[in-house]
Amino acid sequence: MRLRKTKQVPFRSPGELDAMAAAGAIVGSALVAVRDAAKVGVSTLDLDAVAESVIRDAGAVPSFKGYHGFPGSICSSVNDVVVHGIPSSSVVLAEGDLVSIDCGAILDGWHGDSAWTFGVGELSPADHDLSEATRLSMEAGIAAMVDGARLTDISHAIETGTRKAEQTFGRSFGIVDGYGGHGIGREMHLDPFLPNEGDPGHGPLLVIGSTLAIEPMLTLGTTDTTELPDHWTVVTDDGSRAAHWEHTVAVTADGPRILTQRPS
């Protein structure tokens, strides 16, 4: 009987990972520039212009602009918007807003993809905890990206990280249903889809060079969302606030390598 070969998460050579890291560094710089510009009275369309300028000045191209018709260089998701918020002159930042910025860049044919949630001015304790819980859940998923792991080992690590954060902060967090991470390389979205919760030990095998975008999305309430009539913007059904953190990560012999590092 012929044994069935275990499917693997697609992998890259060391040189290709360096090329992805170069694209990812541009994304990191764009996110830092956007956060620095995110002040009271600034619109999300203004932030989009900042990100596009950083990306193009570095010789790269925004991944998002024109992707299936998306009009922006970033997804700008404010308060109850979970993901895919369209930059707009009518969305003007106010004190205490919770802002999630998702950004991508293509350099020499390779993609970087990362998201960051932060506050405008001072956040409420609940919003601060939500963002921190999402970051910690992402980091738990990143730590599970090791040679020989299975895809859902990462899913389980993210879910476990969320439940641990609930104990740390004394709050409940909703893991947004139906959204998750993905493969990435010469295309922004590749198989496999990476759920943000689930039992471990299933799915494709991770090997040296495997690359994934890890991106938990948590809320202060429901796990249910609705896509608005613009066919992009996703909001929580109960109006609760949401956070989104993401890094592009590779498996290496020395452990996980974050390919979307931000300048300090």
TrEMBL record:
<protein>
    <recommendedName>
        <fullName>Methionine aminopeptidase</fullName>
        <ecNumber>3.4.11.18</ecNumber>
    </recommendedName>
</protein>
<feature type="binding site">
    <location>
        <position position="189"/>
    </location>
    <ligand>
        <name>substrate</name>
    </ligand>
</feature>
<feature type="binding site">
    <location>
        <position position="102"/>
    </location>
    <ligand>
        <name>a divalent metal cation 1</name>
    </ligand>
</feature>
<feature type="binding site">
    <location>
        <position position="182"/>
    </location>
    <ligand>
        <name>a divalent metal cation 2</name>
    </ligand>
</feature>
<feature type="binding site">
    <location>
        <position position="215"/>
    </location>
    <ligand>
        <name>a divalent metal cation 2</name>
    </ligand>
</feature>
<dbReference type="GO" id="GO:0006508">
    <property type="term" value="P:proteolysis"/>
</dbReference>
<dbReference type="InterPro" id="IPR001714">
    <property type="entry name" value="Pept_M24_MAP"/>
</dbReference>
<dbReference type="GO" id="GO:0046872">
    <property type="term" value="F:metal ion binding"/>
</dbReference>
<keyword id="KW-0378">Hydrolase</keyword>
<comment type="similarity">
    <text>Belongs to the peptidase M24A family. Methionine aminopeptidase type 1 subfamily.</text>
</comment>
<dbReference type="GO" id="GO:0070006">
    <property type="term" value="F:metalloaminopeptidase activity"/>
</dbReference>
<comment type="function">
    <text>Removes the N-terminal methionine from nascent proteins. The N-terminal methionine is often cleaved when the second residue in the primary sequence is small and uncharged (Met-Ala-, Cys, Gly, Pro, Ser, Thr, or Val). Requires deformylation of the N(alpha)-formylated initiator methionine before it can be hydrolyzed.</text>
</comment>
<keyword id="KW-0479">Metal-binding</keyword>
<dbReference type="InterPro" id="IPR000994">
    <property type="entry name" value="Pept_M24"/>
</dbReference>
<feature type="binding site">
    <location>
        <position position="113"/>
    </location>
    <ligand>
        <name>a divalent metal cation 1</name>
    </ligand>
</feature>
<dbReference type="GO" id="GO:0004239">
    <property type="term" value="F:initiator methionyl aminopeptidase activity"/>
</dbReference>
<dbReference type="InterPro" id="IPR036005">
    <property type="entry name" value="Creatinase/aminopeptidase-like"/>
</dbReference>
<dbReference type="GO" id="GO:0005829">
    <property type="term" value="C:cytosol"/>
</dbReference>
<feature type="binding site">
    <location>
        <position position="113"/>
    </location>
    <ligand>
        <name>a divalent metal cation 2</name>
    </ligand>
</feature>
<keyword id="KW-0031">Aminopeptidase</keyword>
<dbReference type="Pfam" id="PF00557">
    <property type="entry name" value="Peptidase_M24"/>
</dbReference>
<feature type="domain" description="Peptidase M24">
    <location>
        <begin position="19"/>
        <end position="253"/>
    </location>
</feature>
<feature type="binding site">
    <location>
        <position position="246"/>
    </location>
    <ligand>
        <name>a divalent metal cation 1</name>
    </ligand>
</feature>
<dbReference type="InterPro" id="IPR002467">
    <property type="entry name" value="Pept_M24A_MAP1"/>
</dbReference>
<comment type="subunit">
    <text>Monomer.</text>
</comment>
<feature type="binding site">
    <location>
        <position position="246"/>
    </location>
    <ligand>
        <name>a divalent metal cation 2</name>
    </ligand>
</feature>
<feature type="binding site">
    <location>
        <position position="84"/>
    </location>
    <ligand>
        <name>substrate</name>
    </ligand>
</feature>
<keyword id="KW-0645">Protease</keyword>
